[in-house]
Amino acid sequence: YYWRVASINQNGTVTSEVWSFTTGDNNPDAPWYVYRGNARPEAETGFFDLNTAPVVPTLDVLFTDPDNAGNSIFGYRSDTEENFRWRFDLSDQDSTITIVARVRGIDDNASGMMHLDVHAFGWRQKVRLNSRTIKFERSSPTIEEDLPFNWNGDYHIVRLVVNGRTTTVYLDEDTTPFISGESNDERDQLYFEWGKSGGADYGAYVDWMAVNITEASAPTEGTDLPTDIILGATSTFDPFLQAEVRIYPNPAARSITVELPTRATYTAQLISMNGRSATGSFPISHLETVDVSTLPKGFYVLVVQSESGQLARTKLLID
Hints:
Layout lengths: L1 E2 L2 E4 L2 E4 L3 E2 L11 E4 L5 H4 L4 E4 L6 E6 L7 E7 L5 E6 L6 E10 L8 E7 L2 E7 L3 E4 L6 E4 L9 E8 L2 E6 L7 E4 L2 E2 L4 E6 L5 E11 L26 H6 L1 E3 L6 E5 L6 E7 L9 E3 L2 E5 L6 E8 L5 E8 L1
Antiparallel strand pairs: 1-4, 2-3, 5-20, 6-9, 7-8, 8-20, 9-19, 10-15, 10-20, 11-12, 11-19, 12-13, 12-18, 13-14, 15-16, 16-17, 21-22, 22-25, 23-24, 23-26, 26-27
């Protein structure tokens, strides 16, 4: 919703700035919009539209994360002139945007991973993620910084905070900015695009991507990201916790009992196969009964997180 306040008298009308808020009725992750890599972005979400794709992509694949049971990853690549990218539409009422993603490069033969191209607030900034550098292409002069790691070696988290013409990048949720710059490219379009653009060989593995159009938030600031996604550069999956989680009955119709290894307090939520939280996050203890009678039939993933951030995931069929 958008609103503003106006004062009207004999001297005329004075209006405030425009404010906004979201109820989150149709988005359990609000104010974040979260893509979780369970399908192609345009198939899983209602907010990432396919802008263009190769007729025969070099890579267009979904696979189960070998290090994280229940986690899935999307991989894309194009080594031709054909682009492969997705679009998130913005409004002229939006004044900030924060984009966070957990991604990994394909291999050393690819020229790079992706572009993150923001057209908003009267400006354009095009950020190129390469396996060893990050480049701001719409700054004067162009800014490019060497990465402290090889992005082809592991997943890392990148956070873009765009406020007006200024874009700031953070890596692996470090609160110290890695690179920042101002756009020199004035534009009147309103969208955010990501993927492959241009003739070079580009592609990446995408674990998840989250967009927030209400906050310009650095790491540790603003609304927390959902707890079911992997929030570290390296996996927080705990095989010991995974081995101890028990759900029964499975399949279930009305309720499930969840057994956990100790009497510590955990948080949990059920994630549907389209990647959305079906229950929201809730506290759970050593032995807990969870009502599932109101949930639609189908497969879900129960995500359990310990106080130290370790994760376990178990599939559940509601029938």
